[in-house]
């Protein structure tokens, strides 16, 4: 599979980019180099390689989730810009 200048021009048009002839040629060469490298990677034997979503193991450092008392309602409402019937009042989003 290879990219042609027409492909680059088509994608540039979709992206509403105005590219010069030189830029079209340069992008065509660069994209074809990327595809050639990807084809080379397909030659590797990955039969016994487990698929991963990330090359390094990831883990979140989180504290234990413990139940505790929440703030008193009066303290919470002190920070609210507006309050009505014990609830924080915000501007209407829908009409």
Summarize this structure as a short list of keywords or feature phrases:
95 residues, mainly alpha, two-stranded antiparallel sheet, 3 helices, 2 strands, elongated
Walk me through this protein's architecture.
The chain has 95 residues and is mainly α. Helix content is 39%, strand content 4%. Strands 1-2 form a two-stranded antiparallel ribbon. Helix 1 (5-14) packs across helix 2 (21-41). The longest helix has 21 residues, at 21-41.
How far the N terminus sits from the C terminus, by CA atoms, comes to 53 Å
Order of secondary-structure elements: HHHEE
Work out the helix count. Answer: 3
Rg over CA atoms: 28 Å
Strand order of the largest sheet: 1-2
Percent of residues in beta strands: under 5%
User: Which structural class best describes the helix and strand composition?
Assistant: mainly alpha
What is the number of beta strands?
Answer: 2
Most strands sheet = 2 strands, antiparallel
Helix content: 25-40%
**Overall pLDDT score:** 90
Residue stretches low in confidence (pLDDT < 50, at least 5 long) are none
**Overall 3D geometry?**
elongated
| Assembly type | single chain
How do you describe this structure in short?
The protein is mainly alpha-helical and 95 residues long.
Question: Which secondary structure elements does this structure contain, and how are they paired or packed?
Answer:
Blueprint: H1 5-14, H2 21-41, H3 73-78, E1 83-84, E2 87-88
